[in-house]
Amino acid sequence: MKTFKPRLKARLRKNRQALSKNIDNFFGWIKGAKLIELKECNTEEDPVRPELDNAFRTGYGRKICGVEYQGEIHAVMCFAYTNIIPKSVDELEKLSTDAFLQSAMRDQSGGQIAIAYTVWSKKKGGGKLIVKEVFKKIKKSNHLNRLVTLSPLTEMATKFHSRNGAKLIQVNETTQNFEYKII
């Protein structure tokens, strides 16, 4: 019995080291990843709004960002700049176009609210990372003061945003809005 206990401890220690090493490898890509603006994305990969084409995603007051690591995109977020929180994708299109046209007459800054209307990840940890990186970008901007989502009415969206620190601000007919506090 005495020889069994030290062997068990040694095996547990070895397994813990192997698990720790695998977790570091699993999330190691996050350290070298960077946020970039994309001209287009593969809309068929979008689990939230695959019906929206690249022309919509890059239209007036709208952008696509991706998290890139070693030349490969691991997460994507599409967002629009508005001055009012939209309740639907149609309203998002109108409000982002309106904010863009208003800013063209003034200072070229766009709307004051960044509305994230789709986020997806191809790799574990990518969704959280892209939200964090876009959040940093918004904090640095001069014209943006809010990051709000236009999320579908799904449990997955609710859990994702709640886990990442967003607060539910309204539930609409077909969507829900969460807000990430910008301090």
Q: Level of helix content?
A: 25-40%
Rg over CA atoms: 20 Å
Shape: elongated
H/E topology pattern: HHEHEEHEHEEHEE
Q: State the distance separating the first and last CA atoms.
A: 59 Å
Quick check: average pLDDT? 85
Percent strand equals 25-35%
The counted number of beta strands is 8
Task: Figure out the total of helices.
Answer: 6
Weakly predicted, low-confidence segments: none
Most strands sheet: 8 strands, mixed
- Pairing-aware structural class of the strands and helices? alpha+beta
Fill in the keyword field for this structure.
183 residues; alpha+beta; 40% helix; elongated
Which secondary structure elements does this structure contain, and how are they paired or packed?
Blueprint: H1 4-27, H2 29-32, E1 34-38, H3 54-57, E2 62-69, E3 72-82, H4 89-105, E4 113-121, H5 126-140, E5 146-149, E6 151-152, H6 155-163, E7 167-171, E8 175-180
Parallel strand pairs: 4-5
Antiparallel strand pairs: 1-2, 2-3, 3-4, 5-8, 6-8, 7-8
